[in-house]
Amino acid sequence: MFTSKTEVDVRYAETDQMGIVYHANYLVWMEIGRTKLIEDLGFSYASMEEQGVLSPVIDLNVEYKKPLKYGQKASIHTWVQEYTGVKVVYGYEMYTPAGELAIRAVSSHVCVKKDTFRPINIKKTFPDWDAAYKNALRSEG
Fold first, then answer.
1. For residues 51 and 35, what is the distance between their CA atoms, to the nearest angstrom?
2. pLDDT digits (tens, 9 = 90+) for 17-61
3. Neighbours of 133 (CB within 10 A)
4. Residue 56, Cβ neighbours under 10 Å: how many?
């Protein structure tokens, strides 16, 4: 499956009293990875929102393995792990500069109409995204 890669600098404000990244900041970095993946597939989440569609998180699981610390770069790897035409499950791994796995995570999303929060069928509403997600599951990279 296609994997998008990006890096973020660990800033001092993102760390806790122990000097390691505060656990909730990984969720922000997951969003950075997810946005990068969508861009790498040729789309824009902002354009989806402009069309009145949102993609809320409906489930989240994060396994914390090794801490990241101030001054390091976190390497974020993101991919489409599962896609049904309605629900998208994104997979994430983040690595320390030494290449050690810092976290492994998955987040599940559905697309909903902004005004009603009723789910939509991605396959019907965004056929180009549907094709790209299916292709990302099949391709290497």
1. 17
2. 999 999 999 999 999 999 999 999 999 999 999 999 999 999 999
3. 23
4. 11
Q: How many domains does the chain have?
A: 1
pTM: 0.94
Which residues are tagged catalytic?
Answer: 16
Compute CA distances 89 → 38, 83, 85, 109, whole Å.
13, 6, 11, 6
Give dist(CA 121, CA 114) in Å, integer.
Answer: 14
What CATH number is given to the structural domain containing 119?
3.10.129.10
Q: 128: how many CB neighbours lie within 10 A of its CB? A: 10
Residue with the two structure tokens 């998208």: 88
Expressed as residue numbers, the domain containing 50 is 3-138
Burial of 125 (0-12, 13-18, 19+ CB in 10 A): middle
